[in-house]
Amino acid sequence: MNESTPATAAPLARLIDELYKLPGIGPKSAQRLAYYLLRMPAAEARALASAIVEVKERVTFCSICQNVTEVDPCRICMDGERDRSIICVVEEPLDILAIERTQSYRGMHHVLHGAISPIDGIGPEDLKVSELLQRLRSGEVREIILATNPNLEGEATAMYLTRLLRPLGVLITRLARGLPVGGDLEYADDLTLKRALEGRQEIES
Amino acid sequence: MSAPRMYKTEAVILRQRRLGEADRILCIYTPAYGKMDVKARGVRKTTSRMSGHLQPLTRCMLQLAQGHVNDVVAGCETLESFQPLRENLDRLSRGLYAAELIDRFAPERMHSFPTYRLFVETLRRLAEAEDLDQTLRFFEMRLLDQCGFRPELEACSGCGSRLEALDNSFAPISGGAVCHVCAGGIAGARVLSLNGLKVLRLLQHGSYNDAMRVRIEGPLAREVETHLRSFIVSVLERDVNAAAFIERLRREGARHAVEA
What we know:
A: about 200 residues, Helicase, Ruva Protein, domain 3, 8 helices, B: about 260 residues, CATH 2.40.50.140, five-stranded mixed β-barrel, globular
């Protein structure tokens, strides 16, 4: 970008340039953030800078589940009380947080770090698929839950993994798809409604 | 064509990318306005009423509001979801390949009724056809034709002489088939068998039903695919990303078949 003029101090122009590289940040947002940081108390600015440095220096990927962690293996993989026979496969580390928030899953996780998107040139070789296959070699795993996003890329990834894992003889399941809580039936698309009908359940008294 | 402040258009979603907290930028292909990027607000939330209608490879009716940079989706309804495409990885990969070609070839904001119709028909065919690759070859040839890049298959694209009924060559850089005399001096020229030339001509002149009536398999199918792909890559001056995924699926399918 570098729109620095004599009116912009060089360190500030550099900060604007660095902020502009962040996803979702445009030139004006970068300028606003830079001036906000400039006005911030020095202690807060230092805390932010050290947090960025620390996250790059101390956070790594778990060698088992590929989640971000500061200890390898991560705390979930080290937890002896979790069910090691089930692996929930997700696209991103944030998806693990969402699943853990439910407090209803006590199995293991595996992060793919993306989803297959042929148009964007993202194939299985760009994801942590070989690491998942390696985990299955132990023979300990009996179920794989495919928890990729219910969009086209997530479905493509789930279909590819199903094709790849089926010959290994593990049970492959997919998260249920249907109407979201708070949604309106009349606005549902055909596919969602079809899957919601297919997955209907008896009401228990 | 300039669009009014609020307008409706039919469209097929080609691709999408994330924007901000919960929005997406959709690349859509429309008959009247050609290819364009539009913003869909809040569609990454699970409670979004629109997200299901705005998945790639969905034909939908959109209501758009003019925005500063990108027009904004104000309403949408699915017209056709090409469901079999979404339930089979081989069909889906070919559908995405077709979408990528449209994305690369179609100019922005320029009406394109015949190409739009070709694309929608191709998605319908990919949802039902048995021979997916032959369907794609027909689409590739027609798309090249409609975009002004029709390969020369009647005369030598090097010297202009009529092609003889024997093995010739195919040189994308020269614009199509070349005779065996010219082939030596053209970089990237590959052998084009007589049957390969006949198939390419059939794809160029025949209807879809004509093209599908002839069963093209094995090395001949690979030859036709290689020539058409090299021509497309030469025109675009870049690879087609989705082709690598199709190739991988094909390779892994063959390996599984051998192992089984």
